[in-house]
Amino acid sequence: MTVAYHRRPVIWDVDYDTPAGELIAIVGPNGAGKSTLIKAALDLVPKVSGDVRVFGQPYEDQRERVAYVPQRTSVDWDFPVSALDVVTMGLYGKIGWFRPVTRKWRKAAREALDRVGLADFAKRQISQLSGGQQQRVFLARALVQEADLYLMDEPFAGVDAATERAILQVLRDLRSTGKTALVVHHDLQTVADYFDHVLMLNMRLVASGPTAEVFTEENLRRTYGGRLALLDQVGTRLAEGQ
User: What is the pTM for the complete model shown?
Assistant: First the structure.
């Protein structure tokens, strides 16, 4: 797959097959095309060339099996709706637009909020929630869809420690039930602890595979060009087997 903005390539000739039932991190420097990769897979941005298959079929034929968690900063959090309303939006594919939201669907939405630790915030306006709580609301909106594939764009970015633990637990619960999560992730020091597989991207696919095999100091430097001081810290951890 190749994607370009204003004729400038953002992703170039990426070929990748996501392993099923695993947690996969997408890592790379700013501008590497990480978010674009997910958006192109969801037909949210046009592709110059290439083809995407979801469970062997075009995405439009598999929408109900896919859930998307966008970056929190891309959402208008001043929109006057409650946390429960936002989660319920994830059910519209099953309910149908302009049809009443019955007690059954409300219950499902509340249960999703409970899974992310926000059951007591169901009626709270989203603008009144903290950044971490808002992120959990969007995660609940994805969970309520009961999808098989979850695409998440930096869900851990800018959240508090409690939210990070809650998101990680949800990811592990998804994996335990055979679900797949492809997650754009920015914290290199937690990749080895959080994810089974890693996709290392810098416009082109640098490396991909099991984290224990692929997430190496050499591949980090190939991906980031040795520009980050953090690479030295991550490299030290890898060398020490931590």
Answer: 0.87
